[in-house]
Request: fold
Amino acid sequence: MEYTIVKVIQAMLAPGLMISACGLLILGMNNKYSIVVNRIRLLNDEKRQIHHLKNKIDEDFKRESLIKVQINRLNERVVMVRNAVFAYSIAVACFIVSSLFIGMNICTQSEKIEATSLTFFLIGMLTVLVGVIFGAKEALRGYKIVRIEIEEVDNIN
Reply:
């Protein structure tokens, strides 16, 4: 089979679509990660302020316990976001390796290289799925934390 540089490049860039998609997913998850970490810091700061008050009132004790619950749940979210980002990063690496093996296969026409390329591509797709699952779990946990805030405000009124 005859090949040209253009065909080699086209074949190698086929996984590039998945690399771009994972890049966007990583960007979105990193944004969520920053927001969750910032929220944890704000809650910890509020907790320290409440703790340093000498004459605590009942509302302060209630708020402090709610802060503890939220921090624990936010910590769970951070783990989910980290896992999603890690999965997407592994997927990008797999797509890059797959792309390299596609290029090598065009030049060598080796069945082993072709199978290796397909294997890395499929592993990449599976890790994208893992990342999506972690992202969905994180979104559900995020909703639960928002419900805590809403219920607290509802109890004030």
